[in-house]
Write a structure and sequence with these properties.
This protein is of the alpha/beta class. 44% of the residues lie in helices and 15% in strands. The strands form 3 sheets. The chain has a 5-stranded parallel beta sheet with strand order 2-1-3-4-5, sandwiched between helices.
Length: 342
């Protein structure tokens, strides 16, 4: 055996001490926090520099008889795509056009009267040239979002929304970080300002989001209630035998009692039947068994509110009434389950 095999390793061969996990985690969190602080500072600065050009851009976007065409290249293009989606989902017809595809035929998607919203931090991306030229030829309003007011894009644009000169959060100052965050925030600001100006309502939002969770949460009671012949209604002077037959036929587990004016004055549930079970139950009158002043809800209330009421009071059905407390519908918890609300 070579004697060297039994010798301790040379000093320079000693393994490097590993960085403690806690120290590595601290460094990671510090790097993340630093980026967030830089970008947050940039957004605060952006909020202070909005001026009359922002209002002019809103006027152009709100006043167009066409659509809003949003575009950009690279990371700015990804931001533009998202901004177009936000416009569309908040009531402003909009779509994204990729600059390279535009140069190969998609310029035909841009019609006279459309407003073009173009994102480019440098304002000098050559891929945007054909799009810029197209807007000048067909007199489309061009809104530029850029940090370079002396750029070719800014020089050609009708309205320039200038991003403040803030450093990128990348340690090398190269990767688009702060600039794209400001672009995204400014795009959202335009979309939401338009939403406010147009009085876009939760109902409008639900119409445009029928398949999503947000849309489901904006479903109204009147959209899913049962009405007309489906309503289980009886009079307080009817016998319990008749009431039970009605409850069985309508399958809601309850019957509403209405007085001579059609006002809902009480309710009988299957729970009431169990509590009053006795030999003379079928001969008694509904008024003797009913619970007075039952909980009700408006047709215009959100169905999510109905779920909350039913869960809080441990009931499974709610009558929907008009201003005079006349029943116009009934909602069962199963209806809410089918609508994806519970």
């Amino acid at each position: 055996m070579d004697s060297r095999d039994t010798q301790p390793p040379a000093p320079d061969a000693a393994p490097l001490a590993s960085v403690p996990a806690a120290s590595a985690g601290d460094a990671d969190r510090a790097a993340g926090a630093r980026l967030l602080e830089i970008e947050a500072a940039a957004l605060r600065r952006l909020a202070t520099v909005l001026d009359a050009r922002f209002t002019a851009a809103l006027d152009a976007l709100a006043g167009t008889g066409g659509r809003v065409v949003v575009t950009g290249i690279g990371k700015s293009g990804h931001i533009a795509n998202k901004v177009a989606s936000t416009f569309a989902s908040t009531g402003t017809p909009a779509f994204f056009v990729h600059p390279s595809e535009a140069s190969h035929g998609d310029l035909g998607m841009i019609a006279p009267g459309d407003v073009v919203l173009m994102f480019s931090n440098s304002g000098g991306s050559t891929e945007l040239a054909d799009l810029v030229a197209h807007t000048r030829r067909f007199e489309n309003t061009l809104i530029a979002v850029t940090s370079n007011e002396a750029s070719p894009l800014a020089e050609q644009a009708d309205i320039v929304l200038l991003l403040p000169a803030e450093p990128e959060a990348c340690p090398m100052g190269l990767a688009p970080t702060t600039s794209t965050t400001m672009m995204l925030a400014l795009g959202d600001a335009l979309a939401i300002a338009l939403l406010n100006r147009r009085g876009f309502s939760p109902e409008d939002f639900r119409v445009l989001h029928p398949g999503g969770r947000l849309g489901r949460h904006l479903i109204k009671v009147g959209d899913i209630m049962h009405g007309g012949e489906s309503l289980p209604l009886a009079r307080p002077d009817q016998s319990m035998a008749e009431v039970i037959l009605m409850m069985t036929a309508k399958s809601f587990g309850c019957v509403g009692l209405v007085d001579g004016t059609g006002t809902l004055c009480g309710i009988i549930t299957d729970g009431d039947l169990r509590r009053h079970m006795a030999g003379d139950l079928l001969r008694r009158r509904a008024a003797e068994i009913m619970t007075r002043q039952p909980r009700t809800i408006r047709a215009g209330a959100l169905a999510a509110e109905a779920v909350t009421v039913m869960n809080r009071t441990a009931i499974t059905s709610l009558f929907i009434v008009d201003e005079a407390r006349r029943p116009i519908g009934i909602l069962h918890i199963h209806d809410c389950l089918r609508a994806g609300l519970a």
